[in-house]
Write a structure and sequence with these properties.
Elements (H helix, E strand, L loop, with lengths): L9 E4 L5 H12 L3 E6 L9 E4 L5 H15 L4 E4 L14 H29 L2 E6 L2 H5 L5 H21 L4 E8 L5 H4 L3 H9 L9 H11 L11 E4 L8
Parallel strand pairs: 1-2, 1-4, 2-3, 4-5, 5-6, 6-7
The chain binds NADPH dihydro-nicotinamide-adenine-dinucleotide phosphate.
NADPH dihydro-nicotinamide-adenine-dinucleotide phosphate binds next to helix 1, strand 2, helix 3 and helix 6.
Family: Belongs to the short-chain dehydrogenases/reductases (SDR) family.
Organism: Arthrobacter halodurans
Protein name: Beta-ketoacyl-ACP reductase
Amino acid sequence: MAENTSAPRSVLITGGNRGIGLAIARAFEANGDKVAITYRSGDVPEGLFGVKADVTDAASIDEAFTAVEAAHGPVEVLVANAGVTRDTLLLRMSEEDFTSVIDTNLTGAFRVIKRASKGMIRLRKGRVVLISSVVGLYGSPGQINYAASKSGLIGIARSLTRELGSRGITANVVAPGFINTDMTAELPEETRKSYLSGIPAGRFAEAEEVAGVVRWVASDEAAYISGAVIPVDGGLGMGH
Ligand code: NDP
């Protein structure tokens, strides 16, 4: 991939301590950017600047941003990646199952974007990338809460594009299909098989395959792309 001429930028990835978030962090690091990640527990992966934050808590987000700004300058690239699942069929899904997933995946993204936008407006440039899911577009039984949270991110990206597009800020959605991480490792074998049969590529993907797309959509090369939904799903959603 072509080197990004505007590096080093201050990049922040929520939930960047493992899985897709960590792969995204490594991709920006390889680009020469100053990379910070949020984590809740455990250790900060080697070489990365880690700040503790829970995206359900606006105060902890504010503290994390303040620390990143002091170390790396205002956040120019924000990747809202932190996400959870709490799968169960509608009739068994409690209101808590629903609202807790929305609070992390959707309201959490709103909180970090709101905090990041101040600095981006001042800089008159910025890149917001929201990690959605093929499930947000396609639907999935047992994932009404998750699908609602992930399709909601599209509304955020498109409204943000309309609000801040004239300030050099882009907002895009990357919608992964099935990626080998802790999240999909939890799937029962039968479910994995049935998902696999619907994927034209005939395989799940590695987190790095999502990371490269995120890095590109945050690059100078993608400056005129905003409000887009970019699938990384082996053809599962047929471009949607
Ligand atoms: P993982 O379960 O491996 O990692 C989830 C990350 O989110 C962890 O870093 C976790 O932190 C963080 N996180 C969860 N809740 C919070 C919170 N309240 N505050 C801060 N951080 C939090 O998931 P993946 O890497 O697989 O997924 C990353 C993103 O990609 C998610 O948004 C997911 O929905 C999306 N996605 C994943 C797909 C897949 O197939 N794997 C497919 C499509 C989308 P901690 O380590 O502290 O728990």
